[in-house]
Amino acid sequence: MGAVPAVIAFLALACGVLLPRVDGLYVPGHVAALVLALAVPAAQGRTERNRGRSRAAGARRFLFPGMMVLAVLSVIASAMLLDMGSIEGAAGDIGGMGLWLLSTAGLLGLSIAVLGAGQRPAAKPSTRDA
Fold first, then answer.
1. Cα–Cα distance for residue pair 104/74, rounded to 1 Å
2. What is the C-alpha radius of gyration for the chain, rounded to an integer number of angstroms?
3. H helices, E strands: number in the chain
4. Is 86 in contact with 28 (CB distance < 8 Å)?
5. Residue-wise pLDDT tens digits, 24-40
6. What is the pLDDT confidence band of residue 56, given thresholds at 50, 70 and 90?
7. Cα(100)–Cα(48) distance, integer angstroms
8. Angle ∠(45,28,47) on CA atoms, nearest 5
9. What are the φ and ψ backbone dihedral angles of 88, each rounded to 5 degrees?
C-alpha cells in the first residue's frame, strides 16, 4: 500500500512523456498527467492516515509538503502545455515541458524517498552500562 504514491507518480510521468507524442493523444495525455499528479499527494495522505504513528513518520511528514508543492508545479506546467493544444502548438515552447518534466520527476523522487523513509530500521539501543 505504501508504494501506491510512487506508482501513481511514475504513471503521471509516463502519461505526460509517452502519450502526447501521438497527435490524437496530446490533450488526453496531459489531462491524465495532470490528474495523476494531483492524485500523488492524496494517495500519500491516505497512506499516512492508514499507517499510523511510527519513528519514520517525522521524515515522511517533512517530505509531504514538498510533494504537494511539486504536484502543484506539475499541474501548472501541464495546464500550460494543455493551453498549447497540440504538438505543433508546443513546438515553440521554451520552458513548459522542462518545468513539467522536472516537477514530475521530482514528485516521483520524493514519492520514492517517502517510501524509503518508512522502511529504515530502528537504531540499536546502547549496550553500555550507566
1. 6
2. 18
3. 4, 0
4. no
5. 888 888 899 999 999 99
6. low
7. 26
8. 10
9. -65, -40
**Whether 31 contacts 71, CB under 8 Å:** no
pLDDT tops 90 at residue 45: no
Cell of 82: 494543455
Instruction: Please give the single-letter amino acid code of residue 3.
Output: A
Are the C-beta atoms of 15 and 35 separated by less than 8 Å?
Answer: no
Q: Identity (one letter) of the amino acid at 4?
A: V
Supply the pTM of this predicted model: 0.77
> What would the pLDDT profile of 105-125 be if each residue is shown by its tens digit?
999 998 888 877 665 555 566
What's the CA gap between 14 and 108, in Å, rounded? 11
DSSP letter string, 13-31: HHHHHHGGGSGGGHHHHHH
What values do phi and psi take at 12, rounded to 5? -60, -45
Local structure of residue 95 (DSSP, 8 states): S
Per-residue 3-state assignment (H helix, E strand, C coil) for 45-87: HHHHHHHCCCCCHHHHHHHHHHHHHHHHHHHHHHHHHHHHCCC
What is the C-alpha separation between 110 and 43, in angstroms, rounded?
A: 13
